[in-house]
Design a protein that fits this description.
Length: about 130
């Protein structure tokens, strides 16, 4: 055995609380890893579900907008307002798309991802500071 191993063995034999501290740190790190993995799985499933819903809603909205535009243009085609309808409808849709994009970028979720892991790590750090 080298000197470092002898010193570590003497420290472990003389101070039983070091064994407990090492065991606690081991358990805390295992818990943090398990919590992180669980939260990563939950976040991945939430993002997949959100992406699927966004794709389906986008396709449905695109089809509905096309049919609505065709119906409005057909209704105004024999009137003097046909050019107004042809130019104002795309402008209106651009404005609506801009508002929707802005709302999507400002989305607020109830909890940020990995909030539980961060809270657990902070609690454990405070506990360790209290021991020292």
């Amino acid at each position: 055995m080298n000197l470092m191993q002898l010193g570590w063995r003497a420290l472990m034999d003389d101070k039983p609380y070091v064994k407990g501290l090492i065991a606690d740190l081991s358990n805390m790190s295992r818990l943090h890893i398990e919590l992180f993995i669980a939260e990563a799985r939950i976040e991945r499933e939430r993002l997949k579900r959100k992406a699927l819903l966004l794709c389906v809603s986008f396709i449905a909205l695109a089809i509905a907008v096309v049919f609505l535009l065709v119906a409005i243009i057909a209704a105004f085609w024999d009137t003097p307002y046909r050019f107004f309808a042809l130019f104002c409808l795309p402008l209106l849709l651009l404005i609506i798309a801009g508002i929707c994009y802005r709302a999507a970028t400002l989305e607020v979720s109830e909890d940020p991802p990995f909030a539980l892991s961060a809270a657990e790590i902070k609690k454990d750090a405070n506990w360790l500071i209290g021991l020292l």
